[in-house]
Amino acid sequence: MSVGIRYPANLFGHPTDKRIEAVNSELQYWTNHSNVPVTKVVFGHFPMSFTTSSEKGQRYESVFARQSVSAYLCGHLHAKVSKQLWRYHKMRTTEGHKSSFWEWELGDWKDSRLLRILAIDGDAVSFIDQTLKQVLQTSILVTYPTDSRSMNMLVSEEWSMRNDINVLVFSHEVIRNVSARVFDSHSEFKIVEEIPLQLVASSSAQRPLFHAKWNAENYKSPSPTRYWLQVFVLDSHGVKISSEQRPFSVEGKMAIPTSPWLNYLVFEVQWEDMYQVLMRSNMAFTIVLLFIPKLLYHFVRRSSSYQRWVVSVLSSPIQQKKAYFWLVWFLMEGTRSNPFWFCMVIYVLWLIKMPWFWGHATSENGEIAQMYLSGWSMPFHDGGLTGNKLGNPDVLVITLPFLYLMVVPVIVLVYSLFAEKAIVYLRHSRRIEYSADSANMHVESAYLLPVAPGALLMKFSDKMVSAMIQFCGSWTRRALLLACLITAAIHLKLCSRLMSAYGMVPVALSPPLTWMPLLLLGSAAYCTKLHAD
């Protein structure tokens, strides 16, 4: 990105139109200035799933497809999140031609010591990955035929079958023997053929290439995973090493396996677009959660039918079993406290348009910047300008956890606390109505819309309304208070991470992010406790 935002809001690569055009020109140069076909491999830090579009909406994928790139190598995600993610991009160029390229993510060298050995054999690109936690062991890289699951390319009209087996063997020891075995998966992986490989005379210690000829026609099959290849190496100490078995297709067919859901989520979802979907859907749900129950309660209250409806349903065991009643009643009861409802509405509107918190976005002693839902805003020293929407959509690592784990749960918990208080008064009113003279207890509406709820509990002894009962109430209330404590703990955890990233003092002094969720939960818990007076 043009302005380097500190972790964790540095999740995406931000290419410019100028940079994308530079890559396109470099790739086109080799097409124009080569008399033979050129195999093109591109290396970058960020996966395509975490690379944004340029100012004009351009993307690298279209460039790679147009320039017939074979593979794009990337990292960024680290092995703790992912390891060896592969993605096959199939695209159609602006000229209408089909094109494709592989995207191969490795992991990281920093913590996991992952190492990739990549080879280009004609137009075939192959690789092996190893963990270099110790001295590099003997490594076997089959450069042809390639793995049909992760290395085969879209077959072109110029493609022709090759009768070659090529293997690179890297070892500190002298290699005595190299052989390849072909297995048939349709016959319980029985050995079909064993082929000895010979060291190519022009090979050196840096390029230890072993080669053999075979009849590729024998291995033509409709299934790209029927035949499997494994290479065995014997060194001068008598140690036998083997490569892993892998399927191949002499016809260039592909058998791309289905990605696990986590791999798909991380590597194949375009998170620039997904952020907008998740953020807008959350805000829409939050607005609906605030306004629809309030409007419904307003119209019902004006018709004076709300109290009669509640009493009729509570009097009918059949109606009480209907889930929609409890949902509607829960939502309307939650919006009846106007002070809390207005506070939550103002808070949500603030989060949409106003800054969430302040912090040192670029360095420990850098300028104080403001983080909005749309990104960071900070002043530039050149010309006194202000940069807006910086680090967008990188801020999703901050905004999405807060919206989904804090804002919505806080609103639901506030609603729940007020609904739980109302149901307690409803139960008390029904008990008193059944046990007392109906003439003296004809005040149902007062209990349903309690103005002075303490008057009800004056009829109970002081022993029944101890301090613990006042605040904790029933088991339902205790569960709600426990949920409030868990939500508060999650909030403090999120805030502590932001404080360590962008400075303790500015983040701690940012009320919208740091204080408001705790104030709303604490105030709702206090205002909904039972009164003994």
UniProtKB/TrEMBL annotation:
Protein name as annotated: Calcineurin-like phosphoesterase domain-containing protein
Residue span(s) of domain TMEM62 C-terminal: 276-511
Keywords (A to Z) from UniProt: Membrane, Transmembrane, Transmembrane helix
TM helices/strands, residue ranges: 283-300, 340-358, 395-418, 478-495, 507-526
Segments forming domain TMEM62 Ig-like: 137-253
Pfam families the UniProt entry points to: Ig_TMM62, TMEM62_C
